[in-house]
């Protein structure tokens, strides 16, 4: 059983997941002045510092400002106890209910209170339970509803007036759900079931070297793979991408140990292939001296990266000012040692000569040419996983691999997922569901 001391605490620079009932949001706690927006509510996060993950906080209204879409409220957060989190039915002491809803008419006249009265109660900083109690008292039809109908009514009002938020530590599953809900296209429509199958088919573990090419999943795939490799292991991941700067938000949000993050080598696909074929064979002894400095610095650094170290891991996308560029050119100064992307290219090239134990490819473009370039870098009898959003492209790739004889055991599959509501006497599939989450082409390499 985990002790209270073993539960990690919230620190500056951490990514946190703010949960209000079923709604979740990924937020970076960068400074004490950081605020988070949940609909019309703005939360001040400074009281989260040094509090354990999993804590529940009460939103206390600090000020209310008029806005275009109604009142905008700013809240401070106060740590609350478990006794404050009782269900609304228990707090209100509701015990009576009707037999059926046949005589109830939804004509808008059942509620005596006006919207102005409710807004006045909210401005007076009344708790959500008190507001809902007033709504129940002034409802003409509440006690005539069935028990299930009453619960739906209370849940609907709780969703609107709920005043508690929980701060959770980011996990792969939480981030998949958040990214998929916000914009599925930013992670290529990868659901949690598809991601789990990619990890399973690729055979990622704490031993061996693995190759990943992805063209935009917000850092979700490299984060899932390096998380499966684990800390204090010998496994390494080479993460190839088509752009100048890799997407690493999900990777940084996990707050992995620094040595584990450094075993994820992010390189540009075209740059590293050019160096691999034109730059000659690279060995571990040929790495620049900057790498040795990083290894020495790692021994003196904490297990988890600080905000400054996270910036070093995630390349800055800010452009230097024109005056700074002119002054550096005037002085004739040159950077000391090689650039970071050159160091990463050297590390990746050394691993490419040793070949990889698995290949995962998730491309928005046609995967055939990329797969043709990366397959020679994979050892025999190793898994190959190709993810795509279009079935026809993977069918063409399937036929090309089948004809070439480079990969055996080819299978082209599609996942189907439907979530269920699990409640007493009300277990049934949810009405809304995701129709498709892409397609998977799997197989194993041959000599």
Query: Structural class, judged by helices and strands?
Result: alpha/beta
Low-confidence stretches: 281-317
Portion in strands: 15-25%
Shape: elongated
**Largest sheet entry:** 7 strands, mixed
Provide a quick synopsis of the model:
The protein is α/β, with parallel strands linked by helices. It has helices at 88-92, 115-123, 128-137, 147-161, 172-182, 192-202, 220-229, 249-253, 258-262, 269-278, 289-300, 307-313, 322-331, 340-354, 367-374, 391-404, and strands at 14-20, 23-29, 35-38, 41-44, 56-67, 70-79, 164-168, 209-214, 236-241, 264-268, 359-362, 383-388, 407-414, 420-421, 428-429, 439-445. The longest helix has 15 residues, at 147-161.
Structure explained in plain terms:
- The chain contains 16 helices and 16 strands.
- With 447 residues, it is an alpha/beta fold.
- The chain has a seven-stranded mixed beta sheet with strand order 2-1-7-5-6-4-3, with helices on one face.
- Helix 3 packs across helix 4 and helix 10 packs across helix 14.
- The chain is elongated.
List keywords for this structure.
447 residues; seven-stranded mixed sheet; 16 helices; 16 strands; 21% strand; elongated
Please give the structural blueprint.
Layout: E1 14-20, E2 23-29, E3 35-38, E4 41-44, E5 56-67, E6 70-79, H1 88-92, H2 115-123, H3 128-137, H4 147-161, E7 164-168, H5 172-182, H6 192-202, E8 209-214, H7 220-229, E9 236-241, H8 249-253, H9 258-262, E10 264-268, H10 269-278, H11 289-300, H12 307-313, H13 322-331, H14 340-354, E11 359-362, H15 367-374, E12 383-388, H16 391-404, E13 407-414, E14 420-421, E15 428-429, E16 439-445
Parallel strand pairs: 4-6, 8-9, 8-11, 9-10, 11-12
Antiparallel strand pairs: 1-2, 1-7, 3-4, 5-6, 5-7, 12-16, 13-16, 14-15
């Amino acid at each position: 059983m985990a002790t209270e001391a073993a539960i990690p605490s919230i620190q500056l620079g951490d990514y946190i997941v703010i949960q209000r009932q079923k709604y979740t949001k990924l937020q970076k706690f960068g400074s004490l002045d950081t605020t988070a927006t949940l609909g019309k509510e703005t939360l001040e996060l400074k009281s989260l510092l040094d509090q354990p993950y999993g804590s529940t906080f009460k939103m206390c209204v600090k000020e209310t400002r008029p806005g275009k879409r109604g009142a905008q409220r700013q809240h401070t957060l106060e740590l609350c106890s478990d006794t404050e989190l009782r269900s609304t039915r228990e707090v209100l002491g509701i015990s009576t209910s009707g037999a059926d809803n046949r005589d109830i008419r939804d004509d808008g006249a059942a509620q005596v209170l006006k919207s102005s009265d409710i807004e006045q109660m909210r401005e007076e900083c009344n708790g959500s339970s008190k507001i809902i109690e007033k709504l129940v008292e002034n409802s003409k039809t509440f006690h005539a509803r069935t028990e299930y109908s009453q619960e739906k009514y209370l849940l609907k009002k709780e969703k609107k007036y709920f005043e508690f938020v929980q701060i959770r530590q980011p996990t792969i599953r939480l981030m998949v759900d958040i990214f998929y809900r916000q914009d599925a296209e930013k992670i290529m429509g990868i659901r949690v079931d598809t991601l789990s199958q990619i990890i399973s088919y690729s055979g990622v573990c704490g031993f061996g070297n693995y190759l990943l090419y992805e063209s935009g999943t917000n850092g979700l795939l490299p984060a899932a793979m390096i998380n499966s490799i684990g800390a204090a292991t010998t496994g390494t991941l080479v993460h190839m991408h088509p752009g100048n700067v890799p997407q690493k938000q999900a990777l940084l949000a996990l707050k992995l140990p620094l040595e584990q993050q450094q075993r994820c080598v992010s390189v540009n696909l075209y740059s590293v292939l050019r160096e691999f074929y034109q730059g000659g064979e690279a060995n571990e002894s040929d790495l620049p001296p900057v790498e040795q400095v990083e290894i020495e610095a790692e021994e003196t650094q904490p297990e988890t990266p600080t905000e400054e170290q996270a910036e070093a891991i995630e390349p800055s996308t800010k452009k230097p000012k024109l005056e700074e560029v002119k002054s550096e050119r005037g002085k004739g100064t040159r950077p000391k040692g090689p650039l970071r992307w050159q160091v990463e290219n050297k590390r990746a090239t050394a691993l490419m000569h040793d070949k990889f134990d698995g290949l995962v490819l998730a491309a928005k473009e046609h995967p055939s040419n990329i797969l043709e370039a990366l397959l020679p870098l994979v050892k025999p009898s190793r898994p190959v996983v190709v993810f795509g959003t279009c079935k026809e492209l993977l069918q063409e790739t399937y036929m090309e691999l089948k004809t070439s004889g480079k990969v055996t055991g080819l299978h082209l599959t599609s996942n189907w997922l439907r979530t269920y509501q699990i409640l007493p006497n009300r277990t049934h599939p949810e009405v809304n569901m995701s129709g498709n989450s892409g397609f998977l082409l799997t197989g194993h390499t041959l000599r």
